[in-house]
Design goal:
The chain is of the alpha/beta class. The protein has one domain (6-280): TIM Barrel, CATH 3.20.20.100. It contains eleven helices and ten strands. The strands form two sheets. Strands 3-4-5-6-7-8-9-10 form an eight-stranded parallel beta sheet. It has a two-stranded antiparallel ribbon with strand order 1-2. Helix 1 packs across helix 2 (55-64), helix 1 (28-41) runs parallel beside helix 9 (235-242) and helix 2 (55-64) runs parallel beside helix 3 (85-99). The longest helix is centred in the N-terminal third of the chain and has 15 residues, at 85-99.
Length: 287
């Protein structure tokens, strides 16, 4: 079983550098089994969200696991429908019940829209009360991240962003490094686009280390000090995705991969008004 190293967040809390994401793992039993499989092969971070509608399955898997709760790092995210001080607090109480725990290791605001400042203040107070060990944000581009970190009483420990070899978030990471926040990658496989699993550059590099293109793509991110949360329903792929800690890419390899950056999203552009409309429409307009 692979041992994943920890990274230290800005408040001293340690978090595994690689975790398991459960986005779009639907069905209670299906998700519960996937989390159990992930824990069995060595994952100790499980990343969920209120909007994924599978916190209950994650909680059941962790409760049924033989691994101590103290050895598992749980991340969840608050959706924008719950962005308001009292609603955010209530939503975390609901998440605690679904996750079957009395504390959550990391809670993120899922999107930078709606009444996010009130929501963040709620997370700060829940942090003070010990119900959350670390707080942060997700999908906060450089401009929104700089704003919230400047005015927040408790600085974000993590900013979870789409980050992969084709969208390396170099500017974003420069700012998170500057202000002491860890960049965490969601979508480290670019949603399978750009033929990432058979990419000739990644494949050629991987052959030097007896690794696959996908393993090289993940190792590149970790060597950039980016936390990763790959997802798979296959236990064999889970094993492959976590088996990246026994090799180090050379400086030349890293440079070759850096040159693959297109600086374009493979999912959605959060600066696009149509994308923002689609997200905020989950909350009724105030009349």
């Amino acid at each position: 079983m692979t041992n994943v190293p920890n990274v230290k967040l800005n408040n001293g809390v340690e978090m595994p550098a690689e975790g398991f994401g459960v986005y779009r793992i639907d069905g209670f039993e299906n998700c519960k089994q996937a989390v159990k499989n992930a824990l069995s092969v060595g994952y100790r971070t499980i990343d969920t969200a209120q909007q994924y509608h599978n916190e209950d399955a994650v909680g059941a898997a962790i409760e049924e696991s033989e691994i101590s709760r103290n050895d598992i790092f749980i991340t969840t995210k608050v959706w924008i429908t719950e962005f308001e001080y009292a609603k955010t607090r209530a939503s975390i109480e609901a998440s605690l019940k679904k996750l079957r725990t009395d504390y959550i290791d990391l809670v993120l605001l899922h999107q930078p829209f709606g009444d996010s400042y009130s929501a963040y203040r709620a997370l700060e107070d829940l942090y003070d009360e010990g119900k959350i060990r670390a707080i942060g944000v997700s999908n906060y581009n450089s401009d929104r991240y700089i704003d919230i970190q400047h005015f927040a009483r408790i600085k974000p420990a993590v900013d979870q962003m789409e980050t992969h070899v084709f969208f390396q978030q170099k500017e974003m990471q420069a700012y998170t490094n500057k202000y002491g926040t860890k960049l965490e990658s969601w979508g480290p496989f670019a949603n399978g686009k750009h033929d990432i699993f058979t990419n000739p550059i990644l494949t050629k590099i991987g052959k030097q280390y007896q690794k696959t293109a996908s393993q090289v793509a993940l190792r590149f991110l970790t060597q950039k000090d980016i936390i990763i949360i790959p997802k798979s329903n296959s236990i064999e792929r889970m094993r492959q995705n976590i088996d990246i800690w026994d090799f180090t890419l050379s400086d030349a390899d890293m440079e070759s991969i850096e040159n693959m950056d297109t600086n374009e999203s493979s999912f959605m552009n959060l600066h696009d008004p149509k994308t923002v409309e689609w997200i905020v429409n989950s909350v009724p307009e105030k009349k």
